[in-house]
Design a protein that fits this description.
Elements: H1 3-12, H2 17-34, H3 36-49, H4 55-74, H5 76-81, H6 84-89, E1 91-94, H7 96-100, E2 107-110, H8 117-125, E3 131-134, H9 140-150, E4 157-160, H10 166-173, E5 178-180, E6 191-196, E7 199-204, H11 206-214, E8 217-225, E9 232-236, H12 248-265
Parallel strand pairs: 1-9, 2-5, 2-8, 3-4, 3-5
Antiparallel strand pairs: 6-7, 8-9
Helix pairs in contact: 2-4, 3-4
Length: about 290
Amino acid sequence: MARLPVFILWLMHFLPFRALVWSGNVFGWFLYIVAADRRRVSLINLQKCFPELSDVQRMRLVRDHFKMFGRGFIERSILWWSSGARINGLIRVEGVEHFDALAGRPAILLTPHFVGMDAGGQWIAQRVDTVCMYANQKNRYLSRLLFEKRSRFGKQRLYSRQRGMRPILKGMREGMPFIYPPDQDQGVKDGAFIPFFGVAAATITTLPRIAQATGALVLPCITRLLPGAAGYVLTFYPAWENFPSGDDIADTRRMNAFIEERVREMPEQYFWLHKRFKTRPEGQAKIY
């Protein structure tokens, strides 16, 4: 069943970018209509994170997010099958001096879950070998496809979460930056409940611990989808100073606060379909 949609996606990479943007918006609107459960999850997330908005404003934001999500999905056709030159032509980079300054130093590229993150990832992959983690899909064909397409530039090392952090640390010690998306609910076995928009969110405290173990600099990078057919902006922020501080909880609070700031800048592009607050502190009722 998965091969036909993938074939259609492959065909689409031949289209002009403007046509892909239009198709993504349409696909996102279709998902908004049919994916009732994810629509409900998104709305609950926004109720928790933006209580100051009216119901109408939040519903409009959910619709806008689905359009952006649809774009992010359809535009993967370019990221997976088009040339590096075409991808680079769609991406404007800001703060590249911060990225260049990492050459030869251990680094963690902090990449929260915005819909354009894969576009930024492919730009990075064309310039430096990286190490990162991925989640195995239930469909073996899709797992293999995602692995191949995310590692088609350079010598990227991708490891499943089931293998733990050991191969990641090994790659970092060999000089490869670690691409790290930290902002999903994976329970509190290796984390704690850290506020995210004022709501207790199960958050992995891995970032400061890896930085401490490897001496790595933390460099946030965010990719924004631009309106129309203008492409993307990949922004590298200055490497964090005084990080880690020795207080894992305080450092993880700093990480969540940074992500909050970026979400407020483009709330329609954050990944609201994920059940960010699924794990609850003991005694608190389920949210979803």
